[in-house]
Every structure is written in C-alpha cells, then in structure tokens.
Amino acid sequence: SSPSKTYAADAVAHEAKRVISSSTKPLFLYYALPTPHEPLSEPPNAVYDDRLQGRRRIFGAIATHQDAKVGSVVKSLKDNALWPSTLFIVLADNGAAATGGSNGPLRGAKGGVWEGGVRTRALLSGPLVPIAVRGSSYKGLFHASDWMPTILSAAGLSYEDGLDGVDQRAAIKG
Predict the structure, then answer these.
(1) pLDDT for 65-96, tens place per residue?
(2) Which of 43, 76, 138, 147 places its Cα 20 to 30 Å from the Cα of 169?
C-alpha cells in the first residue's frame, strides 16, 4: 500500500482550525499557506477556469482552493467566537515567479531584487479594521519588519524600543 498523501494547504488549514477550536483565550495564529510554490501541485477536486491555459490554469485552481481554505479558517474563527477580536492579515512573502506569474507594472520577479520580486500587497480584514478605512488603500511605506510592532500594538501589548520595524497601527486606523 502507498502512503496517503495530503495536500499541504489542506493540512495547514486543518491544523489552524484545530488550534482555533481548542483555544479558550485570544491567540496569535500564523497561518502560512504553502501554496502556490514550485512545483505547482494541483489541489484535489480542482476547480478550473476554462479561460486560463497551461500554468495559469493550474495557478488559478490553486488560488481558488486557497480561497476556500482561508474561508474555512475565517468560518472557524466565527464559529468559535474569536472573530470579534480578529485582525486578519493576508500577505505574500515575495512577488510572483517569472514563469506563469505577473508582477506588472513592476519590473522583476521572485528571486530578484527589482520591485516585482520584493514588493507585495497585503489585505487586512476583520472587526478590528475601522469601518472608515475598510476598502481603502494605504499609499505609504510598510516594511516586512513593521509587522511585529504593528501586531503587538494592535493586541495592546508593548514592545521594546530598538526593535527593527515601526508600529504602523496609525496607518491601519486611518
């Protein structure tokens, strides 16, 4: 018999929901989806967009699957009464790969030093995002090292001076 295989995004979502359902107090959950990364691996029961071809078609199926997994984690937060105190952050660690991805209008791709390889977008959601700024865009600079002091500030926790990064909570508040 062959060992059973679990799609990585499914395993990570399952563990996140297990942690959420067993939590009795507020928590910090780092939910890092391992997809999409090379080699592109089609999810089980993949849903394809017939408008896409080749690698873009596979990538689209992966993105659709990821969206469903993120939705299931949000549902678990709501089902376990943790959503009211949630700041849900979705971000990427790098730009898209040159093969099959697009970072337009930026130059470069994953693994490179141009903006297309290192500059990404982030999305913040949840009840802790003020209504006045929901659906807006932040035009300022926000570095990866800013996440730690910003998250600590959002949680009402202090942090040491001298840490790399800047508390960007004011940018979230609008």
Answers:
(1) 999 999 999 999 999 999 999 999 998 888 88
(2) 76
pTM for the full predicted model = 0.86
Tokens representing 154 are 């959002």
Q: Give the start-end residues of each E strand in 1-92.
A: 88-91
* CA angle at 101 for the pair 105 and 148, rounded to the nearest 5°: 80
pLDDT, position 103: 86
The pLDDT value recorded for residue 161 is: 77
- Residue 47, pLDDT > 50, answer yes
Which of 35, 28, 42 lies closest to 12, judged by CA?
35
Measured CA to CA, the distance from residue 10 to residue 21 in angstroms comes to 16
Length of the chain: 174
Burial class (CB in 10 A: 0-12, 13-18, 19+), 158: exposed
| Cα-Cα end-to-end distance for the chain | 57
Nearest to 116 by CA among 142, 100, 98, 99: 98
